[in-house]
Amino acid sequence: MFFSKEIGIDLGTANILVFERGKGIVLQEPSVVVMERQTNKVLAVGIEARRMLGRTPGNISAIRPLKDGVIANFEVTEIMLKHFITRAIKRRHFFKPVIMICIPVGITGVEKRAVIEIAMQVGARKTFLIEEPLAAAIGAGLPIGEPSGSMVIDIGGGTSEIAVLSLGGIVISESLRIAGDRFDEAMIRYIRDKYNLIIGAKTAEEIKMTIGAAYVQENKEYEVRGRSVVSGLPQNLVITSEETVEAFQEPINAIVASIKRVLEKTPPELSSDIMDRGIIMTGGGSLLNGFAKLLSDITNIPIFLADDPLTCVARGTGQALEEIDNLHDVLLTSEGVGIRR
Length: 341
Fold this sequence. Notes:
This protein has helices spanning about 45-50, 75-90, 110-120, 130-140, 180-195, 200-210, 240-245, 250-265, 270-275, 290-300, 310-320, 325, and strands at about 5-10, 15-20, 25-30, 35, 40-45, 60-65, 65, 70, 100-105, 125-130, 150-155, 160-165, 170-175, 195-200, 220-230, 235-240, 280, 305, 330-335. By secondary structure, it is α+β, with helices and mostly antiparallel strands. Strand 11 (about 150-155) and strand 12 (about 160-165) form a beta hairpin.
């Protein structure tokens, strides 16, 4: 495939990362598109579009076309992917690219077809799908091909993926549509209910990334600006890391329950391996302060952050391109889900 690009895509709810074989990650941008409502003219994509979230006038719409890890708006996702792939490739090639896209565990056949259809629409010569926990494990450097157990927890923007892997495949897994976006929503609710203050999703995300915690190791403060429910006027307040722990209880409890279910279903031999090796956390959500310690305390299993958790899935997706022959049995292709090449 000398003249053909090979591209791995982490099609995330919050961010899209593009990995090019031989070059590594060549693009990392927010999954946001800004369009004119009446004409559907694209005004901005990615970083520039994200800056406009919550600030657009009535005739302009800021759209996040992926929700809970899957495509919510087919047309806008196609526009966004075309934009990013064109930027990643930079120039036209005689042969269309081979594209590998990661998907959440357990998405429906219709959702898989939607992903592949978009890849073919944007010019893929052939499309492969790889499940996110497998891509995360590969990107984290876990020895998934060995006859022993490895466990990965990938917390992204739209989904949390928990899986036990062995002999190159997924043994036990759960996909939970509760992840980074739900933490933002929980923060918005908490501040509205406790302080009668309305904040936007972007502010909630900034709070999460700046002082947010699952377990308080250092109590920090953050000045929040929003609109008072009572007066309708702008208002400031200061919240602490301890309050974010309280705000995040619902999504954290859901993720903990999912991890426990996966561990309960894991065969004893693989459980022993996991106890010895520990669990690897990947994804942007794993960077929440104290999250790894909290989960380790609850499960009594060592839990480690992967190197560069944000790019782990994208790197694993790209590395899987180099191991297609070894992974053939666990990958889905355009032929495998009913889409013609």
